[in-house]
Amino acid sequence: MAARASSVYVHQDLLVTRPSDRPAITSHGVSCCRGQPPSTGRVSRGVCLHCAHDSGSCNVHQRLHRRGCPGADAPDRPDHQLAEFQHVFGGLHTNLELGYAVRLFFDNGGTNSYVVRVHDQTEVPKGLSLLDVAASTAVLCLPGCFDVATLEAATAYCDQRRIFLLVDPPSSDVAATKGLAAALQATGTSNAAVYFPQISIADPTSPHAPRLSSPSGAVAGMVARTDTNRGVWTAPAGMDAQLMGVLSLPFAIDQTAAASLAAAGVNSIRSVPQSGIVVWAAQTVSSQDQWKYVPVRRLTLFIERSLVSGLQWAIFEPNNDPLWAQLAIHVSSFLSTLWHQGAFSGKTQQEAYLVKSGREVMTQNDIDQGAAIVVADFAPVNTTETVALKITVQTSLQC
Questions:
Q1: Which of 52, 161, 284, 295 suits 141 as a labelling partner, its CA being 20 to 30 A distant?
Q2: Nearest CA to 332 among 311, 359, 363?
Q3: Which CATH number fits the domain that encloses residue 392?
Q4: pLDDT at 95
Q5: CA-CA distance, 336 to 330, in Å (whole number)?
Q6: Residue 287 domain flag
Q7: Is residue 59 pLDDT above 50, yes or no?
Q8: What pLDDT score does 397 carry?
Q9: Is the CB of residue 28 less than 8 Å from the CB of residue 115?
């Protein structure tokens, strides 16, 4: 299932896929496929996959799309989104995580979502490729999927698309979860984070028995909420990172255990007095110190996606000095906006970022090949790191 969440600062998408009739979610739209080759459809002007799932009715879905859809005719129509989701996907099914993850996603601040359902894990790569049409996808999750090979395919897709992956724990076993984080780290990706433990939620299909469920849907909604309220550069963790709709955790995680998990690249979910159940850390699985923290990595991905998309006008321009100057102006203007919003450290723009283009960062061969290059150095807020981002626009005309 792929869910997509709108934000003041950034269009954010979240994708979820699960093998063996298990769905996938992304933030910002919904789609699904089961028992048949993946295909495309439409939900709330987002992307969906035709669903072979019976469309049932369930009172739970009356609470799903409460925050409205940016693509809908009415900007704030929870009932509109809910009706579409229920029509395409049906109600809750106890043997599937999809419905529960979607409910938690919207309960925690998500708005739209793209969803893909696959018949088994062999179809995950094809299912992921269907999300190519969702240009603003930014976050991907596969609720309840723990298969390393499947997750490796997802991380490869995320690396290619500049998307961030939210990963569920394989069980309540700490060692197994740390092992999963280590396996993802071994892929070389910096675009994934693992969350632990599972969460206990109310199950309308069994009112007297809470359900132990995967946390990625709730985490995805909280991430979307954080983006909207505070910006993609803000860590989705701490006292403000409450997970709504969560009744309890299978066991308590103290500060020592949380630190041990964080050292292994696992973000703990804790019950904190006065704050409730919160995500307590924001670390990626990356082995690179520069990309250790989720907000730094996601901010960089957001900037890169935005610039690659926003500079496409340059492909029809001659690759010469006037173009390079225009590219530098456009990139500087974009980074200036982010600096004013609080994304970067530095009391002045000169301290916060530096943009270079032209022969200073290009070789004669680059120019001859029509490659216009811009290098942006920026200092994400609340870090001591400086990120150097290189953007190449392949022009069709040479000077």
A1: 52
A2: 311
A3: 3.30.360.90
A4: 85
A5: 10
A6: no
A7: no
A8: 58
A9: no
